[in-house]
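pinned: reference chain
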Amino acid sequence: WRGVSLRTYRGSLAGSSVLATSITLHRYLRTFGMIDLVLPVSDFVRNKHLEASLFQGRMVVKPNFAEGRTRRIGPGNHFLYAGYLEDSKGVGHLVREWPGGVELVVAGDGPQAGRLDGFDGVTLVGRQDQDDMEQLFKQTRALMVPSRSYESAPRVILEAYSAGVPVIASRIGGIPELVIDGETGLTVDPDDGPGWKAAIARLSRDSESLRMGANAYELWKEKYSPEAGLKNLEDCYRLAIERRAAR
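pinned: its structure tokens
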């Protein structure tokens, strides 16, 4: 009832009601008790399930993966925000506080789109297709992920890594598990204005953008590439089959 009253599913009363009804029904039918293995995408998500006393002893973290993009050459030109344009994503705060002297490209659409125009150093390009995003990432100095509410494990971070692009992101939710501070990017508290400006200044230096971008690409190859994702999934299927056989 709390999820419905707060409209926690995309701000929709109807959508939240349908989801809450589904969860309630399956609890009544004991469907969740029949599950052998649950695959949260981050330790953060796993711990949230544990706090709710769900799936204890039946969870294995299986990270997201991302297809490879054309790898960036050089330190990049602009900073990039790519995603949904709404309050919880922090894009409005990012745009309003953006420092002069460097360019921020904002790609995406959403309810805030009409309120982000006219800020110094900010270029809005709207929703982009895959080919356009490929070109944007090839010229990106750092990806910005300024979320102000919990994120499980944003796939856009892994897409940036696959192009050799470092990330500046909020230190919240599951994000710190993906962004190794000082190595593949920088993490900042959502409300730390000076911290965001310092991070932008640091990755405005070519040497830092190149160093962290190279680290990000190597981490993607090792942990978040399609090959790594396939191996993780096959391992999880084997474990689930073993557990079902044991039952």
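why pinned: The chain has ten helices and six strands. The first helix runs from residue 2 to 5.
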